[in-house]
Amino acid sequence: MSPAQTAFLRLQWRNALSQTSGNNDNEKDQASEGIPAPTGKANLIDTDYVIGQDNIQTNKFGFSVDLHGKVFTVSSLVILLFVIITLALPEQMGPVFNGAKSFLTDNLSWLFLLAANIFVILAVVLIFTPLSRVRIGGMHAKPDFSYAGWFAMLFAAGMGIGLMFYGVSEPITHYGTAITGDSWAPLGGAQGDSAQAQSMAMAATIFHWGLHPWGIYAIVALSLALFSFNKGLPLTMRSIFYPILGERIWGWPGHIIDILAVFATLFGLATSLGLGASQASAGLNYLFDIPNTNVTMVLLIIGITLVALLSVMLGVDKGVQRLSQINMALAFLLLLFVIFVGPTMLIATGFIENMGSYLKNLPALSMPFGREDTNFVHGWTAFYWAWWISWSPFVGMFIARVSRGRTVREFLIAVLLVPTVVSVIWMTAFGDTAISQLTSGFEGVKDAALELQLFVMLGQLPLTEITSFVGIILVMVFFITSSDSGSLVIDSITAGGKVDAPKPQRVFWALIEGAIAIALLLGGGLTALQAAVITTGLPFTIVLLAACYAIIQGLRSEPRY
Question: What is the pTM (predicted TM-score) of this model?
Answer without folding.
Answer: 0.88
